[in-house]
Design goal:
acyltransferase activity, transferring groups other than amino-acyl groups; membrane; 14 helices
Length: 365
């Protein structure tokens, strides 16, 4: 599965799906998750929207499916140094900016929004705060920690050789093994194996494999089994957390249907003629997804708290557009200019380091 040069197509409809998932999470945080921004119970602010918005947390599950697909696509044909450079330069510039902006908001502009410390904010810059049992300054960061662990797993595959057989073995064995070891009730093992996210990432991995072999029955069967695991894990863990956050019951059947619909949609967008659609506006929205996800929660709540006198729908529109504008600024002034530079710099230095170690090894042999 390695080649000197690999063309990585841009799937415009998957970009659009990513943005739609981010929008669903935004609507969930603004109109379904309990918060102080409105000054009254959130389910009373939008009684007509609430029954639908409370399922917006599933946008995160969709992110994980897409990541399984996109990260394997990104890893194909790349050497370890190039993969690390690609992931670090993709994650950290916007993340550091998001941490800085949210820290500024909560430390100076809106301390009532959440009680955080400078030390906590500084440790959050590493994205390793969970290792030290330090809370995230923004709740959405937990998903980035899951993504980071998935990157390490893929990096390990690249080290040993990213073959179809190994990738398929990972996608088939990871979810059931994670579910099995989950019964030990060990935080350490769950941190390593990620039982709730494993089937979602694996669904994306299998869709990646289906791009190469769309008529492979084993792959389709594995995708279906992973969907079952995803439904089981999401209803057993993530849904319960969302019920607590919304103070409302969620239908496990709807959760299953949404996950199934997401899987089918991503298959259609990656495996059919729909994959050939090219639209600059879809790609642009896809590029805004990550920074929007990073900053929407607390900045959005702050905007809403200052718009309590406005009609609720107008306040929601202004806060949403404000977060999108902030996301665009992060992309335009941070990600776009500094991401490629960081990637090139890291790739060069990591490649030099690898070459030096190989030379020293040969000298000592």
């Amino acid at each position: 599965m390695s080649s000197p040069t690999v063309t990585r197509p841009r799937f415009a409809l998957i970009d659009l799906t990513r943005f739609a998932a981010a929008a669903a999470v935004l609507i969930y945080h603004f109109t379904a998750r309990e918060n102080k921004a409105w000054g009254e119970p959130v389910n009373e602010v939008f009684p007509g929207l609430f029954p639908f918005a409370k399922y917006g947390f599933l946008g995160v599950e969709v992110f994980f499916i897409i990541s399984g697909f996109v990260i394997l696509l990104s890893a194909e044909g790349r050497k370890p140094a190039a993969f690390i450079a690609s992931r670090v330069s993709r994650v950290y510039p916007a993340y550091w900016t998001g941490v800085a902006l949210t820290s500024f908001l909560l430390l100076f502009l809106w301390p009532a929004g959440k009680d955080i410390s400078v030390a906590q904010a500084l440790l959050n810059l590493t994205l390793l705060q969970e290792v030290f049992n330090v809370p995230h300054i923004d709740g959405v960061y937990w998903t980035l920690w899951a993504e980071l662990r998935f990157y390490l797993l893929v990096f390990g595959l690249i080290i040993v050789g990213l073959t179809r057989e190994r990738v398929l073995s990972l996608a088939i064995l990871w979810p059931p093994l994670a579910a099995l070891f989950q019964q030990l009730d060990s935080d350490v093992i769950d941190t390593i194996l990620m039982p709730e996210q494993a089937p979602l990432f694996s669904m994306g991995i299998i869709i990646y494999l289906l791009v190469k072999q769309p008529k492979n029955f084993v792959l389709w069967a594995a995708l279906g089994v992973n969907w079952i695991f995803a439904v089981f894990q999401t209803n057993g863990g993530t849904r319960i957390g969302a019920e607590s956050n919304t103070e409302n019951l969620l239908d496990p059947v709807i959760v299953a249907v949404v996950l199934g619909f997401a899987g089918v949609a991503i298959c259609l967008f990656a495996l059919t003629r729909l994959s050939r659609i090219r639209a600059a506006w879809m790609t642009s929205l896809g590029l805004l997804t990550y920074p929007l996800y990073l900053v929407h929660e607390h900045w959005g709540w702050w905007m809403l708290s200052n718009l309590r006198e406005a009609p609720s729908w107008l306040a929601l529109l202004i806060a949403s557009l404000g977060c999108i504008a902030l996301a665009w600024a992060i992309y335009a002034f941070v990600e776009k200019p500094f991401g490629p530079r960081m990637r090139a710099l890291l790739k060069r230095h990591l490649s030099d380091l690898g070459a030096t170690r190989e030379h020293n090894f040969r000298e000592s042999a």
